[in-house]
Amino acid sequence: MADETSTPALQDNVLRLGFGASGAWSKSWFSETKAQALVKRALDQGISHFDTASFYAGGLAEIRLGKALLALGHKDVEVSTKTGTHYHYGKRPTKDFSETNIRKDVEQSLQRLGREQLDILYLHGPDGPQLKAAHETLIALKQEGKIKLAGVCGRLASLKHAIEPETIDIIMGPYNLLDTSCKPIFAQAKAAGMRTIGIAALIAGLGDKQLARPKSLSDIWYLLRALKHNRPVITEARTKLHQIIEHLGHKSAEHVMLAYALAETNIDTVLTNTTRLAHLDANIKTALAEPLEAAVLDELNAFGVSHGFPP
Ligand SMILES: NC(=O)c1ccc[n+]([C@@H]2O[C@H](COP(=O)([O-])OP(=O)(O)OC[C@H]3O[C@@H](n4cnc5c(N)ncnc54)[C@H](OP(=O)(O)O)[C@@H]3O)[C@@H](O)[C@H]2O)c1
Q: 67, 68, 100: which is closest to 84 by C-alpha?
């Protein structure tokens, strides 16, 4: 059984962990100094892939990330951002994948991030027709040098239309202990020569015991978000998760959850986000540690499937 305290061993010299510039990290009430310190630590420890979106914290996430990378003198990292979703206070988000909106977002993202080209531009959760209609815009943006790679991020419903390697270079989707629905799509994408990014590995902090005992403003924010999105199953899921992890003899739920996502070989990079240096260090340690053993993976797979998550 893999031990989370064992000495890290770099696999193929590639850190398969990316930094999510989103969530509490991006909010105006979260300290700018701490946000920058997290980006610095990520860079110092070898993270070179950063993900954000035009609509995270109303644009502040891109501004923060751009400022931090510029201040730290790092222009040569890979930065992804997203287009297509608009959040409205107190109302349901709306989608817009029109050429006008995509181009407007691209210009704003370039400006906020302080970059001349977007390494990756994802369409955020398009349906099949929306994705098809946006193909020409993505191709034109690549030809103009505004974007390097085009991607689609979202759940299975979006990603199943995205295996179009002539236009789409990369997909991003959830993959965790309780939701492996995108596994076949990741395999298809790799077989088609595309890149793949896994998200929600930590199920938005579900494994963390602090979720029930918030210690900071960001803990409260994550707790409220988790309750809003997942109220009926959250307590049950947490209890079962801790039962299985204890049964497997691991001390840290997050180590097991992240190692589980990293064990999916058809995912190139797993993203996590955090507001704590200690958590960032722990996640990097997990990404560098020995992979989970096959027998442990079998038990974890059986756990997720048998409990029928996500609802
Ligand atoms: N989930 C989505 O809907 C979505 C959609 C598109 C893109 N993304 C991308 O994916 C990235 C990852 O986000 P995610 O939603 O998948 O979140 P996640 O990384 O699965 O979960 C983040 C939560 O885990 C906690 N956490 C992180 N490391 C921890 C550790 N070692 N120990 C204990 N708690 C830890 C964080 O709290 P602390 O701050 O206390 O560490 C936070 O509450 C985002 O930043 C974004 O770039 C996500």
A: 100
Query: Per the structure block, which two tokens stand in for 34?
Result: 């701490």
Q: How many domains does the chain have?
A: 1
Query: For 171-191, what is the mean pLDDT?
Result: 94
Whole-model pTM? 0.90
User: Is the model's pLDDT at 10 over the cut of 50?
Assistant: no
Judge whether 224 lies within some domain: no
User: For residue 176, what is the domain's CATH number?
Assistant: 3.20.20.100
Mean pLDDT for all residues in the chain: 87
Where b means 16+ CB within 10 Å and e means fewer, 56-94 reads bbebbbbbbbbbbbeeeebeebebbbbbbbeeeeeeeee
> How far is the CA of 294 from the CAs of 64, 236, 297, in angstroms?
40, 26, 5
Domain of residue 251 covers 17-204+233-306
Testing ligand 1's pocket by substitution, the residue of 202, 219, 251, 268 carrying the most ligand atoms inside 8 A of its CB is 202
In a domain, 213, yes or no: no
Supply the residue whose CA is at minimum distance from atom 36 of ligand 1: 274
Segment 137-148, tens digit of pLDDT = 999 999 999 999
> Is residue 225 assigned to a domain?
no
Assign 230 a pLDDT band (cuts: 50, 70, 90). low
pLDDT band at 11 (very low <50, low <70, confident <90, very high): very low
Ligand 1, atom 41: closest residue by C-alpha: 274
Is 150 a domain residue? yes
pLDDT bin (cut points 50, 70, 90) of residue 296 is confident
Q: How far is the CA of 202 from the centre of ligand 1 (A)?
A: 6
Residue nearest to atom 29 of ligand 1 (CA): 279
Q: Cβ–Cβ contacts within 10 Å for residue 43, how many? A: 18
Closest atom of ligand 1 to CA, residue 218: 39
Kindly report, residue by residue over 27-40, the tens digit of the pLDDT: 999 999 999 999 99
